[in-house]
């Protein structure tokens, strides 16, 4: 059996490895248009900020290692077409400048996402960057030499992480956000305001409700960002306004897209075209709390989808369980996490939801270095079903979100959370952990106490 995989990062390499492990007789070929495979793009801000010593440390597997496992990895090979009827792909060797046809029995489209580049994000100016892959990170590193002022456009995960990275490099940083607050798609408003306060406490100038109109430049290099509120001078500009799934190849193969704009698949990662699978950031999934189709491109989701696709392409039977929208990020000394749906999202979906807020400490208050932690727990009125949680606190402390995420995967209730046997010792939590306090308070709220 011949398996062809388009894309050699998270989903693609997870699928390739799993397929070979399950069935050593399959022939697996991976075409990657870039010069690297299997790297952690989420680590780029931490290399730029100096927490990770080099971009090479982000590489999990080399092409040589994969070839030792019997996987034919071809770098700088771009798949430009798919003939689903003939079960062939057209491939362009970017170095040799030639194209050829490759047959397949099973095809995986793992083409990921691209950074959104609005019309004003001029490509002809040096110093203007997105943050998606290793070359992007290396280009930013080069642009920082001699730079004093940076402007980040977009207040999502990447924008917030890059704000810390660039401040740690000594740059003056201005963050522009079109919406009313930073972290707008991740947290409820008052939690967003806590994140903004942390940015400002560390010297980041935050301008929300700001629309970018153009970039200015001189001698081929960016000099500033023109907004509806005036000019922001900048030597380096980071455009972090979102991503879009790479679906051109899937559409060329006749594969249907979902309502999210990403590739539609079933639980086995199969598309509606025979023999064609999709996995990773270009693919939508089912939200286990809402039952709706969503496009939430995150590393674990991509790797898990890839494993499922690899098993099924090699003749096994695996199912992708869906997602609950769990996310986490750090900016300076603050960690923020969420899972399920926020109160604002629940309201938008028409769910009868109720939330409680609890302010506590991340471990016993009498133990040294106890720090504040803030929790919002959300549930469905009537049924008591957990809908989500948001946490703000010291970075390590907000990993508590995983407890709620696990219960959401099992359709857990507020009472289930309250009855969960959580670990206790003074250096780690209070005897009644903040999650248990929130569950107790929410349970009483649901009962009208």
Overall morphology = globular
Number of helices: 12
In terms of quaternary structure, what is this? single chain
**Mean pLDDT over the full residue set:** 96
Radius of gyration: 23 Å
Q: State the helical fraction.
A: 10-25%
- Structural class by helix and strand composition: alpha/beta
- How much of the residues is beta strand, in percent? 25-35%
- Poorly predicted tracts of residues: none
Name the strands of the widest sheet in spatial order.
3-2-1-7-18
Termini separation: 63 Å
Describe the protein in words.
With 449 residues, this protein is of the alpha/beta class. Helix content is 25%, strand content 29%. The chain has twelve helices and 25 strands. The strands form seven sheets. It has a five-stranded parallel beta sheet with strand order 3-2-1-7-18. A five-stranded parallel beta sheet has the order 9-16-10-11-12, with helices on one face. A five-stranded antiparallel beta sheet has the order 21-22-25-24-23, with helices on both faces. A hairpin with a 5-residue loop joins strand 24 (372-380) and strand 25. Helix 1 packs parallel to helix 8. The longest helix is centred in the last third of the chain and has 15 residues, at 299-313. The radius of gyration is 23 Å and the shape is globular. 45% of the residues are buried.
